[in-house]
Amino acid sequence: MGNGVEIHGKKLRIYFPYEGEKCREPLDLEPTPENLTYAENMVKMIRHEIRASSFIYSKYFPNSKRLVKNRLNHYLDIWLEIKKERTADSTFNGYKGMVERYIRPKFGRRQANQIDYIDIERWMSNELQPLASKTIKETLAILSQVYSLYQKRNASAHNPTTGITVRLPDRPDPEVWTREEIDKILSTPAYNGNVQELDLIKFMMWTGPRVSEAIALTWEDVDLDAGTVVFRRARVRGPFKATKTRRSTREVELLRPALEALQDQHQRTASLPPVSIQVKERDNRTFRTEKVRFVFMNSFTGNAHNSDTTLRDGFLKSHLKSAGVRYLGIGQCRHTFASQMLSAEMPLDWIAKQLGHSSTAMIHKHYSKWIKADAYDMVARANERLKL
Predict the structure, then answer these.
(1) 183-218 burial, b if ≥16 CB within 10 A, otherwise e?
(2) Sign of the C-alpha dihedral computed for residues 245, 249, 252 and 258 taken in this order
(3) Residues in contact with 348: Cβ distance below 8 Å, sequence separation at least 6, in sequence order
(4) What pairing do the DSSP bridges indicate for beta strands 275-280 and 240-242?
(5) What 3-state DSSP class applies to 204?
(6) In a structure prediction context, what are the per-residue pLDDT tens digits for the chain, which is 388 residues long?
(7) Measured between alpha carbons, how far is 106 from 123 in angstroms, rounded to an integer?
(8) Cα separations (Å) of 235 from 202, 210, 230, 239, 242?
(9) How many Cα atoms occupy the beta-carbon half-sphere of 343 within 13 Å?
(10) Would you list the DSSP string of 292-324?
(11) Of 63, 113, 301, 361, which sees the most CB atoms within 10 A?
(12) CA 48, 53, 55: angle at the middle one, nearest 5?
Protein backbone atom coordinates (compact mmCIF):
# COMPACT_ATOMS: atom_id res chain seq x y z
CA MET A 1 0.00 0.00 0.00
CA GLY A 2 2.88 2.34 0.76
CA ASN A 3 2.89 6.00 1.86
CA GLY A 4 3.22 4.90 5.50
CA VAL A 5 -0.12 3.08 5.60
CA GLU A 6 -0.78 -0.67 5.72
CA ILE A 7 -3.59 -3.05 6.52
CA HIS A 8 -3.16 -4.99 9.76
CA GLY A 9 -5.89 -7.59 10.20
CA LYS A 10 -9.12 -5.75 9.38
CA LYS A 11 -7.84 -2.33 10.45
CA LEU A 12 -5.41 0.27 9.17
CA ARG A 13 -1.97 0.76 10.65
CA ILE A 14 0.50 3.57 9.97
CA TYR A 15 4.30 3.47 10.16
CA PHE A 16 7.00 6.12 10.19
CA PRO A 17 10.68 6.46 11.20
CA TYR A 18 11.29 8.15 14.56
CA GLU A 19 14.42 8.32 16.73
CA GLY A 20 16.16 5.66 14.67
CA GLU A 21 13.26 3.21 14.84
CA LYS A 22 10.42 2.23 12.54
CA CYS A 23 7.32 2.96 14.58
CA ARG A 24 4.01 1.23 13.86
CA GLU A 25 0.73 2.40 15.37
CA PRO A 26 -2.70 0.80 14.79
CA LEU A 27 -5.70 2.95 13.91
CA ASP A 28 -9.22 1.96 14.82
CA LEU A 29 -10.27 2.47 11.20
CA GLU A 30 -11.41 0.08 8.52
CA PRO A 31 -9.57 0.26 5.16
CA THR A 32 -12.13 2.37 3.28
CA PRO A 33 -10.98 4.92 0.67
CA GLU A 34 -11.86 7.81 2.98
CA ASN A 35 -9.97 6.28 5.89
CA LEU A 36 -6.96 5.54 3.70
CA THR A 37 -6.79 9.21 2.71
CA TYR A 38 -7.12 10.25 6.35
CA ALA A 39 -4.31 7.89 7.41
CA GLU A 40 -2.00 9.08 4.61
CA ASN A 41 -2.54 12.71 5.62
CA MET A 42 -1.79 11.79 9.25
CA VAL A 43 1.51 10.21 8.21
CA LYS A 44 2.41 13.33 6.19
CA MET A 45 1.68 15.56 9.20
CA ILE A 46 3.70 13.34 11.55
CA ARG A 47 6.70 13.34 9.20
CA HIS A 48 6.49 17.12 8.86
CA GLU A 49 6.45 17.58 12.65
CA ILE A 50 9.37 15.17 13.08
CA ARG A 51 11.42 17.23 10.60
CA ALA A 52 10.42 20.41 12.44
CA SER A 53 11.29 18.84 15.83
CA SER A 54 7.76 19.57 17.04
CA PHE A 55 6.38 16.03 17.04
CA ILE A 56 4.75 14.96 20.33
CA TYR A 57 4.06 11.25 20.26
CA SER A 58 1.37 11.34 22.95
CA LYS A 59 -0.71 13.89 21.00
CA TYR A 60 -1.36 11.32 18.29
CA PHE A 61 -1.10 8.07 20.22
CA PRO A 62 -1.84 8.65 23.94
CA ASN A 63 -2.35 4.93 24.61
CA SER A 64 0.61 3.64 22.63
CA LYS A 65 2.61 0.76 24.07
CA ARG A 66 5.69 2.66 22.99
CA LEU A 67 4.72 5.53 25.26
CA VAL A 68 4.36 3.29 28.30
CA LYS A 69 7.84 1.91 27.72
CA ASN A 70 9.21 5.42 27.18
CA ARG A 71 7.79 6.90 30.36
CA LEU A 72 10.33 7.66 33.03
CA ASN A 73 8.37 5.33 35.34
CA HIS A 74 9.48 2.41 33.19
CA TYR A 75 13.16 3.25 33.60
CA LEU A 76 12.81 4.08 37.27
CA ASP A 77 11.45 0.57 37.80
CA ILE A 78 14.30 -1.01 35.81
CA TRP A 79 16.91 1.03 37.71
CA LEU A 80 15.44 0.04 41.08
CA GLU A 81 15.32 -3.61 40.02
CA ILE A 82 19.02 -3.51 39.17
CA LYS A 83 19.96 -1.69 42.37
CA LYS A 84 18.03 -4.13 44.51
CA GLU A 85 20.31 -6.91 43.31
CA ARG A 86 23.54 -4.96 43.61
CA THR A 87 23.31 -2.89 46.80
CA ALA A 88 22.82 -3.51 50.50
CA ASP A 89 19.23 -3.45 51.76
CA SER A 90 19.70 -0.24 53.71
CA THR A 91 21.27 1.52 50.70
CA PHE A 92 18.52 0.30 48.37
CA ASN A 93 15.80 1.48 50.77
CA GLY A 94 17.39 4.93 50.73
CA TYR A 95 17.40 4.99 46.92
CA LYS A 96 13.81 3.77 46.72
CA GLY A 97 12.67 6.38 49.22
CA MET A 98 14.10 9.21 47.12
CA VAL A 99 12.60 7.82 43.92
CA GLU A 100 9.13 7.45 45.43
CA ARG A 101 9.12 10.75 47.34
CA TYR A 102 10.75 13.11 44.87
CA ILE A 103 11.28 11.75 41.34
CA ARG A 104 8.30 9.55 40.49
CA PRO A 105 5.56 12.00 41.59
CA LYS A 106 7.11 14.77 39.48
CA PHE A 107 8.31 13.01 36.34
CA GLY A 108 7.19 9.37 36.44
CA ARG A 109 4.33 9.60 33.92
CA ARG A 110 6.17 11.89 31.54
CA GLN A 111 7.99 10.72 28.45
CA ALA A 112 11.67 10.40 29.27
CA ASN A 113 12.73 12.22 26.12
CA GLN A 114 10.47 15.21 26.87
CA ILE A 115 12.07 16.15 30.20
CA ASP A 116 14.72 18.80 29.69
CA TYR A 117 17.35 20.79 31.57
CA ILE A 118 14.96 23.61 32.43
CA ASP A 119 12.42 21.13 33.86
CA ILE A 120 15.10 19.80 36.21
CA GLU A 121 16.33 23.25 37.24
CA ARG A 122 12.79 24.42 38.03
CA TRP A 123 12.09 21.24 39.98
CA MET A 124 15.21 21.79 42.07
CA SER A 125 14.39 25.45 42.65
CA ASN A 126 10.79 24.80 43.66
CA GLU A 127 9.77 21.36 44.97
CA LEU A 128 13.27 20.34 46.14
CA GLN A 129 14.30 23.73 47.48
CA PRO A 130 13.28 23.04 51.13
CA LEU A 131 15.46 19.90 51.24
CA ALA A 132 19.03 19.73 52.47
CA SER A 133 21.64 20.25 49.74
CA LYS A 134 22.96 16.73 50.31
CA THR A 135 19.50 15.25 49.70
CA ILE A 136 19.08 17.30 46.52
CA LYS A 137 22.50 16.20 45.27
CA GLU A 138 21.75 12.52 45.96
CA THR A 139 18.32 12.75 44.29
CA LEU A 140 19.86 14.40 41.21
CA ALA A 141 22.53 11.68 41.10
CA ILE A 142 19.82 9.00 41.04
CA LEU A 143 18.00 10.73 38.19
CA SER A 144 21.28 11.03 36.28
CA GLN A 145 21.89 7.28 36.67
CA VAL A 146 18.36 6.51 35.46
CA TYR A 147 19.01 8.58 32.34
CA SER A 148 22.34 6.84 31.78
CA LEU A 149 20.36 3.60 31.79
CA TYR A 150 17.80 5.11 29.38
CA GLN A 151 20.62 6.06 27.01
CA LYS A 152 21.77 2.43 26.86
CA ARG A 153 18.52 1.67 25.02
CA ASN A 154 18.20 5.02 23.26
CA ALA A 155 21.69 5.94 22.08
CA SER A 156 20.70 9.35 20.73
CA ALA A 157 18.80 10.36 23.85
CA HIS A 158 19.88 13.29 26.01
CA ASN A 159 20.50 13.36 29.75
CA PRO A 160 18.75 16.47 31.10
CA THR A 161 20.84 16.44 34.30
CA THR A 162 24.08 17.07 32.41
CA GLY A 163 25.70 20.31 33.51
CA ILE A 164 23.59 20.70 36.66
CA THR A 165 25.59 20.88 39.87
CA VAL A 166 24.61 21.10 43.52
CA ARG A 167 27.00 22.84 45.87
CA LEU A 168 27.28 21.47 49.37
CA PRO A 169 28.02 23.50 52.49
CA ASP A 170 31.38 23.02 54.17
CA ARG A 171 31.48 19.80 56.15
CA PRO A 172 31.12 20.62 59.86
CA ASP A 173 33.62 19.25 62.33
CA PRO A 174 32.27 16.07 63.93
CA GLU A 175 30.80 16.57 67.39
CA VAL A 176 32.69 14.57 69.99
CA TRP A 177 32.79 14.13 73.74
CA THR A 178 35.77 15.55 75.62
CA ARG A 179 37.86 13.44 77.96
CA GLU A 180 36.06 15.00 80.92
CA GLU A 181 32.70 14.05 79.42
CA ILE A 182 33.91 10.53 78.65
CA ASP A 183 34.90 10.06 82.28
CA LYS A 184 31.47 11.30 83.45
CA ILE A 185 29.63 8.99 81.04
CA LEU A 186 31.57 5.90 82.04
CA SER A 187 31.69 6.58 85.79
CA THR A 188 27.94 7.23 86.12
CA PRO A 189 26.00 4.10 87.17
CA ALA A 190 24.27 2.52 84.17
CA TYR A 191 20.83 4.02 83.64
CA ASN A 192 18.10 1.60 84.71
CA GLY A 193 20.76 -0.99 85.47
CA ASN A 194 21.60 -1.50 81.79
CA VAL A 195 25.22 -2.44 82.42
CA GLN A 196 25.64 -4.22 79.08
CA GLU A 197 24.73 -1.06 77.18
CA LEU A 198 27.21 0.97 79.23
CA ASP A 199 29.93 -1.58 78.51
CA LEU A 200 29.03 -1.37 74.82
CA ILE A 201 29.41 2.43 74.89
CA LYS A 202 32.74 2.05 76.72
CA PHE A 203 33.94 -0.48 74.14
CA MET A 204 32.95 1.75 71.19
CA MET A 205 34.48 4.91 72.68
CA TRP A 206 37.85 3.22 73.12
CA THR A 207 37.88 1.05 69.97
CA GLY A 208 36.10 3.14 67.30
CA PRO A 209 33.92 0.66 65.37
CA ARG A 210 30.77 1.62 63.53
CA VAL A 211 27.70 0.94 65.67
CA SER A 212 26.57 -1.70 63.17
CA GLU A 213 29.91 -3.52 63.63
CA ALA A 214 29.86 -3.33 67.44
CA ILE A 215 26.38 -4.82 67.87
CA ALA A 216 27.29 -7.68 65.50
CA LEU A 217 30.47 -8.57 67.41
CA THR A 218 30.58 -12.19 68.62
CA TRP A 219 32.82 -14.14 70.97
CA GLU A 220 34.10 -16.02 67.92
CA ASP A 221 35.66 -12.68 66.87
CA VAL A 222 37.37 -11.98 70.22
CA ASP A 223 40.78 -13.00 71.55
CA LEU A 224 40.97 -11.75 75.14
CA ASP A 225 44.47 -13.15 75.69
CA ALA A 226 45.90 -11.32 72.67
CA GLY A 227 43.74 -8.25 73.34
CA THR A 228 42.29 -8.16 69.82
CA VAL A 229 38.95 -8.42 68.04
CA VAL A 230 38.07 -8.94 64.39
CA PHE A 231 35.21 -6.97 62.82
CA ARG A 232 33.88 -9.19 60.06
CA ARG A 233 30.15 -8.37 59.86
CA ALA A 234 27.64 -5.60 60.54
CA ARG A 235 23.97 -5.39 61.42
CA VAL A 236 21.81 -2.63 59.95
CA ARG A 237 18.08 -2.52 60.82
CA GLY A 238 17.89 -6.25 61.44
CA PRO A 239 19.75 -8.16 58.69
CA PHE A 240 23.43 -9.12 59.00
CA LYS A 241 25.83 -8.31 56.19
CA ALA A 242 29.53 -8.38 55.46
CA THR A 243 31.45 -5.29 56.49
CA LYS A 244 31.21 -2.17 54.34
CA THR A 245 34.44 -2.83 52.40
CA ARG A 246 37.21 -5.43 52.38
CA ARG A 247 39.32 -2.98 54.37
CA SER A 248 36.56 -2.78 56.98
CA THR A 249 37.05 -6.48 57.79
CA ARG A 250 39.94 -5.94 60.17
CA GLU A 251 41.68 -7.06 63.31
CA VAL A 252 42.08 -4.26 65.84
CA GLU A 253 44.08 -3.92 69.02
CA LEU A 254 42.22 -3.11 72.22
CA LEU A 255 43.02 -0.29 74.58
CA ARG A 256 42.74 -1.09 78.27
CA PRO A 257 39.18 0.31 78.81
CA ALA A 258 37.85 -1.60 75.78
CA LEU A 259 39.47 -4.82 77.00
CA GLU A 260 37.94 -4.26 80.46
CA ALA A 261 34.48 -3.90 78.88
CA LEU A 262 34.90 -7.22 77.07
CA GLN A 263 36.17 -8.94 80.21
CA ASP A 264 33.03 -7.78 82.03
CA GLN A 265 30.86 -9.02 79.20
CA HIS A 266 32.63 -12.36 79.09
CA GLN A 267 31.12 -13.22 82.46
CA ARG A 268 27.64 -12.33 81.20
CA THR A 269 27.36 -13.66 77.65
CA ALA A 270 30.28 -15.92 76.69
CA SER A 271 28.54 -19.06 78.00
CA LEU A 272 25.23 -18.42 76.24
CA PRO A 273 24.28 -21.03 73.61
CA PRO A 274 25.21 -20.12 70.03
CA VAL A 275 22.56 -19.01 67.55
CA SER A 276 22.47 -19.47 63.79
CA ILE A 277 22.49 -16.33 61.63
CA GLN A 278 22.49 -15.58 57.89
CA VAL A 279 25.07 -13.03 56.72
CA LYS A 280 24.70 -11.40 53.31
CA GLU A 281 28.00 -11.24 51.44
CA ARG A 282 29.34 -8.10 49.82
CA ASP A 283 27.92 -9.11 46.42
CA ASN A 284 24.44 -8.66 47.98
CA ARG A 285 23.35 -12.04 46.57
CA THR A 286 25.25 -14.71 48.48
CA PHE A 287 24.59 -15.69 52.10
CA ARG A 288 26.75 -17.54 54.58
CA THR A 289 25.47 -19.30 57.71
CA GLU A 290 27.27 -18.75 61.01
CA LYS A 291 26.76 -20.08 64.53
CA VAL A 292 27.72 -17.33 66.94
CA ARG A 293 27.47 -16.01 70.50
CA PHE A 294 26.94 -12.26 70.66
CA VAL A 295 29.11 -10.21 72.99
CA PHE A 296 26.59 -7.46 73.76
CA MET A 297 22.93 -8.24 74.47
CA ASN A 298 19.93 -5.99 75.04
CA SER A 299 19.55 -5.83 78.83
CA PHE A 300 15.79 -5.44 78.52
CA THR A 301 14.94 -8.16 75.95
CA GLY A 302 17.84 -10.54 76.45
CA ASN A 303 18.37 -10.63 72.67
CA ALA A 304 21.13 -9.20 70.51
CA HIS A 305 20.68 -5.56 69.48
CA ASN A 306 19.24 -5.27 65.96
CA SER A 307 19.87 -1.54 65.36
CA ASP A 308 21.16 1.60 67.01
CA THR A 309 17.60 2.74 67.78
CA THR A 310 17.19 0.76 71.01
CA LEU A 311 20.62 1.87 72.19
CA ARG A 312 19.86 5.51 71.49
CA ASP A 313 16.29 5.74 72.75
CA GLY A 314 16.34 2.98 75.34
CA PHE A 315 19.63 3.87 77.01
CA LEU A 316 21.95 6.59 75.74
CA LYS A 317 19.64 9.61 75.95
CA SER A 318 18.62 8.84 79.53
CA HIS A 319 22.13 7.86 80.63
CA LEU A 320 23.66 11.07 79.31
CA LYS A 321 21.02 13.05 81.15
CA SER A 322 21.87 11.20 84.38
CA ALA A 323 25.57 11.89 83.79
CA GLY A 324 24.95 15.57 83.11
CA VAL A 325 26.54 15.31 79.68
CA ARG A 326 25.24 16.90 76.47
CA TYR A 327 23.49 14.59 74.04
CA LEU A 328 25.35 13.36 70.98
CA GLY A 329 24.29 10.45 68.79
CA ILE A 330 25.70 7.02 69.49
CA GLY A 331 27.66 7.14 66.24
CA GLN A 332 29.78 9.88 67.82
CA CYS A 333 31.57 7.22 69.88
CA ARG A 334 33.56 6.52 66.70
CA HIS A 335 34.38 10.22 66.19
CA THR A 336 35.31 10.51 69.86
CA PHE A 337 37.76 7.61 69.62
CA ALA A 338 39.41 9.13 66.53
CA SER A 339 39.72 12.55 68.17
CA GLN A 340 41.19 11.09 71.34
CA MET A 341 43.76 9.18 69.30
CA LEU A 342 44.65 12.32 67.34
CA SER A 343 44.96 14.28 70.57
CA ALA A 344 47.31 11.59 71.88
CA GLU A 345 49.38 11.97 68.68
CA MET A 346 48.94 8.34 67.70
CA PRO A 347 50.25 7.53 64.18
CA LEU A 348 47.66 8.23 61.49
CA ASP A 349 48.32 4.87 59.83
CA TRP A 350 47.45 3.08 63.08
CA ILE A 351 44.26 5.13 63.55
CA ALA A 352 43.20 4.41 59.95
CA LYS A 353 43.77 0.68 60.48
CA GLN A 354 41.73 0.68 63.69
CA LEU A 355 38.84 2.46 61.99
CA GLY A 356 38.97 0.41 58.79
CA HIS A 357 39.88 3.28 56.48
CA SER A 358 41.96 2.65 53.37
CA SER A 359 44.15 5.73 53.80
CA THR A 360 45.07 8.48 56.23
CA ALA A 361 43.31 10.94 53.91
CA MET A 362 40.02 9.67 55.31
CA ILE A 363 41.25 10.55 58.81
CA HIS A 364 41.96 14.12 57.74
CA LYS A 365 38.60 14.35 55.97
CA HIS A 366 36.35 12.91 58.66
CA TYR A 367 38.10 12.78 62.01
CA SER A 368 40.40 15.78 62.28
CA LYS A 369 38.51 17.29 65.23
CA TRP A 370 41.13 18.59 67.63
CA ILE A 371 40.07 18.73 71.29
CA LYS A 372 42.17 21.58 72.62
CA ALA A 373 41.42 20.74 76.24
CA ASP A 374 42.73 17.21 75.73
CA ALA A 375 45.70 17.96 73.48
CA TYR A 376 49.26 18.60 74.50
CA ASP A 377 50.49 22.21 74.75
CA MET A 378 52.25 22.29 71.38
CA VAL A 379 54.01 25.60 71.98
CA ALA A 380 55.41 24.35 75.29
CA ARG A 381 56.50 21.13 73.61
CA ALA A 382 58.24 23.04 70.81
CA ASN A 383 59.99 25.29 73.32
CA GLU A 384 61.19 22.27 75.27
CA ARG A 385 62.40 20.27 72.27
CA LEU A 386 64.15 23.22 70.64
CA LYS A 387 65.55 24.46 73.98
CA LEU A 388 64.14 27.92 73.33
Answers:
(1) ebbbebebbeebebbbbbbbbbbbbbbbbbbbbbbb
(2) positive
(3) 360, 363
(4) parallel
(5) helix
(6) 668 999 998 999 999 998 777 889 999 999 999 999 999 999 999 999 999 888 888 888 888 887 778 889 999 999 999 998 888 788 899 999 999 999 999 999 888 988 999 999 999 999 999 999 999 999 999 999 999 999 998 888 889 999 999 988 877 777 899 999 999 999 999 988 899 999 999 999 999 999 999 999 999 999 999 999 999 999 987 789 888 777 778 999 999 999 999 999 999 999 999 999 999 888 888 899 999 999 999 998 899 998 888 899 989 999 999 999 999 999 999 999 998 888 888 888 898 899 988 778 777 766 555 545 555 666 676 667 767 5
(7) 8
(8) 19, 10, 15, 6, 9
(9) 19
(10) E-BSSB-TTTSSB--SHHHHIIIIIHHHHHHHT
(11) 113
(12) 65
Are the beta carbons of 52 and 106 closer than 8 angstroms?
Answer: no
pTM: 0.70
- Contact between 185 and 325 under an 8 Å Cβ cutoff? The reply is yes
DSSP 103: I
DSSP percent split of the chain into helix, strand, coil, nearest 5: 50, 15, 35
Q: Are 181 and 325 in contact (CB under 8 A)?
A: yes
Amino acid (one-letter) located at 257: P
Dist. CA 25–CA 244, nearest whole Å: 50
In whole angstroms, give the CA distance from residue 23 to residue 16.
Answer: 5
Rg (CA), the chain: 30
What's the CA gap between 279 and 288, in Å, rounded? 5
157-161: Cβ within 8 A, 24+ apart: 157/19, 157/112, 157/113, 158/113, 158/116, 160/115, 160/116, 160/117, 160/119, 160/120, 161/117, 161/120
State whether residue 221 is helix, strand or coil.
helix
Is 261 in contact with 202 (CB distance < 8 Å)?
yes
DSSP for 133-199?
A: HHHHHHHHHHHHHHHHHHHHH-TT---TTTT---PPPPPPPPP---HHHHHHHHHSPPGGG-HHHHH
